[in-house]
Amino acid sequence: MGRLINWAESRSGPEEFHSSLLLLPLESNSHCHCHGNMNRRPPLLLLLLLLHLIFLPRSDSSSACSTKCGSLDVRYPFGTGFGCGAPNFFPAVTCDGDSDSNRQLTLNTHVGKYPITSISYSASTVTVVPPLMSTCATMHPAGSPAFGLDWSAPFQIAPAASVFVLLACASPLAVGPPLCDPAAGPRLCSSLLACPAVAAIGLPLYAPTNTCCVYSPAGLGPKGDLDIQRLGCSSYASVKSTGSWSQTDASTWEYGVVLQYGEAGTSVAEDVVTAEACSACEGSGGACGYAPPKDYFVCVCDSGLNTSTDCYGLSADELKNFWSTSTATATNHPTWTIASSRGN
C-alpha cells in the first residue's frame, strides 16, 4: 500500500495546517478509497489550500512591521524593523521600546540616538530632538561632537528649515557666515540669553550677545559632526520655528533639527514603480517592506502573510473564515489525503 499524508487533523488555522503537512510522519491509511489508482486527482479544495501555502509564505519580519510607532504614522520609506520600509533606511531608523505605550521612532547615528518627533511625508523631512540639545526651558553642556549624521545614511540637514544657535562661546565665531542677531528677523541670541536656564551653562541672565552666534547655514564637519567644542562653545540649540506671534519669547519656540531624507542608488523608474506598489499596499492596510537577500518589494499584511501586490482579501478575519471553512470540510471528509507516487 502507498505511503499517505493525512492533513485532516488541522483545527485552527494556517500555521497548524502548515505544521501538519511538514511534521506528521508518513503513515499507512487503511481507509483510503484510492482502490489502487495512485494517479487520481486530489480534491480541488486541497489544491487551493496548498496554493495558499506555496504562494503566500509567512514573512519572518511581518511581526515587526507596523504602520504606527508610538504616536507617529510610519509609512514608506520608514519601517519599524528589519524587512520593513526601504532597506537603506534600516538600521538608521528603528522603532524602539517594549510596549505600544513607550515605543519611539529613532534615528541612529555614530554619535547617538535621536528621537524622531515628527515626519512630513509631503516635504520628505523628519524632525529630531537630540538629548543634549538646549532649549529655553533646559540647557546643559553638550558633548563633543554634539550632533552628527552618517554620510552613508539617506539624511542631510534641511537647508533653511532649522538653524543652530551656538551658546556660551568664548569669542565671536568666524563660521557660517555668522549671523549673530542680524538687524532683520528674530533676535535669536538675545532671546535665548533671556532664558533663566542659561545659568546651567555658566552664563548670567542677559549675557552679552557676543557669547552666542547663529550658525547659518548650518554645516557639519568632515566627519558629519557638529563639534561645538572645536568651535569654542559649550552648548547649542536648534530652532525650527519662532512662531508668528512671540518671536522674542524663546519659551514658545519650536526646537529640533530638521533633516531631509531621500533614497539613494535607485533610478527614477524604480522609484515610480515602488511608489505605486507601496501606495496600493498601504491603501489595503499593509506595510511596505522588502525581502532579503535581493531586497525585492513586498507588502506585509496584518494577517502575517506578505505579497508582491497588496493585502486585499488577506485580512486576518477573511483568512480565519477561509481556514475555518476548509477545516470543517476536511473534518467532514477525513479520508482526503495526498498520496505518494509509489505503487502498492
TrEMBL record:
Pfam families: GUB_WAK_bind (PF13947), WAK_assoc (PF14380). Residues 65-129 form the Wall-associated receptor kinase galacturonan-binding domain. It comes from the Eukaryota. One of its GO terms (cellular component) is membrane. InterPro entries: WAK_assoc_C, WAK_GUB. It is a single-pass membrane protein. The keyword DNA-binding does not apply. GO terms for molecular function: polysaccharide binding. Keywords: Glycoprotein, Signal. Its main location: membrane. The keyword Glycoprotein applies. It is found in: Membrane. Residues 263-303 form the Wall-associated receptor kinase C-terminal domain. This is Wall-associated receptor kinase galacturonan-binding domain-containing protein.
